[in-house]
Amino acid sequence: MEPVTKEPEEKDDADRYRAPALDKGLDILELLAEQKEGLTRAEITKRLGRNASEMYRMLERLVARQYVVRSAAGDRYSLSLKLFALAHRHPPTNRLIAEALPLMQRFADEAEQSCHLAVYDRGNLLVVAQVDGPGTWGMSVRLGSRVGLIDTGSGRVMLAFQTREHRAHMLAEHTKVKGEVTIDVEELEKVCERVRADGHSQKDSQQIFGVTDVTFPILGPSGHALAALTCPYLRRIDEYVAPSIEAVTGMLSETVKGLSVLGEE
């Protein structure tokens, strides 16, 4: 039997509806998504096997549309957080919240503390889920609140678990929230180094006396923070024996492990 030869009109849809310019842009985005420290234009051109001039034009457009950012020296390119921000307007964010809430509720019941989940949003953080503890007293952050990027546990954890380029982009987008405590860039970098080394942040709240913020990152497959889960820990001083901050930190760590798997699917 003679092999059947496809006529031009019978080509697969993948070939029939090709958009070369779009493919080039998507190739760049997919390549940069796998790079923690970004790539130079020459490296991108070589890895994709493309013409240098067409890569230059495409990169310039992606930078102009803020999907890609240049390093401070201007010689390396990496993904911005724009795709991440767009994803938060899409149902996968609802999935994260839906998956997180039962685990957050279990944590709150066992730890007898409240907790809240925050994601990066236009220069600061947005609280997208919140669960109260079971006790008479508690500390909670209102759902939908925007919290500071610089002086909160959630913000510092989100900054710590990003590439240097992404962190610079987040700081460039940042605008001060009411009452925000000022910190210089060098000191902030040291804070981020400590948070990365510890794997989480534990510090006295810079907004309210008597609260210790314990925050863990929810990590995606590249090791970057997709969200931050915080427990604003309150210590009981009466005769009731509640879980210690050490025990609560361990519980929050286990809760986050269950959520970080979501970023790997």
Helix percentage range: 40-55%
What gap, in angstroms, lies between the N and C termini?
45 Å
User: In which order are the strands of the major sheet placed?
Assistant: 5-4-3-8-7-6
Query: What is the domain tally?
Result: 2
Unreliable spans = 1-8
For this structure, the CATH topology of the largest domain is Beta-Lactamase
Portion in beta strands: 15-25%
Count of DSSP strands = 8
The ordered string of helix (H) and strand (E) elements is HHHHEEHHEEEHHHEEEH
- How many helix segments? 10
Global morphology: elongated
Q: Quick check: average pLDDT?
A: 86
The major beta sheet can be summarized as: 6 strands, antiparallel
CATH homologous group name of the largest domain:
GAF domain
Give the C-level CATH assignment of the largest domain. Answer: Alpha Beta
Rg estimate, integer Å: 22 Å
Molecular structure report:
The structure is a single chain. The protein has helices at residues 13-16, 20-32, 41-48, 52-64, 82-87, 91-111, 153-160, 164-173, 185-198, 245-260; strands at 68-70, 77-79, 115-121, 124-131, 146-147, 201-204, 211-219, 225-234. The protein has two domains: 8-79, Arc Repressor Mutant, subunit A; 85-264, Beta-Lactamase (2-Layer Sandwich), CATH 3.30.450.40. The chain is of the alpha+beta class. A hairpin with a 6-residue loop joins strand 6 and strand 7. It has a six-stranded antiparallel sheet with strand order 5-4-3-8-7-6, sandwiched between helices. One of its GO terms (molecular function) is DNA-binding transcription factor activity. Pfam families: HTH_IclR, IclR_C. It comes from Trinickia violacea.
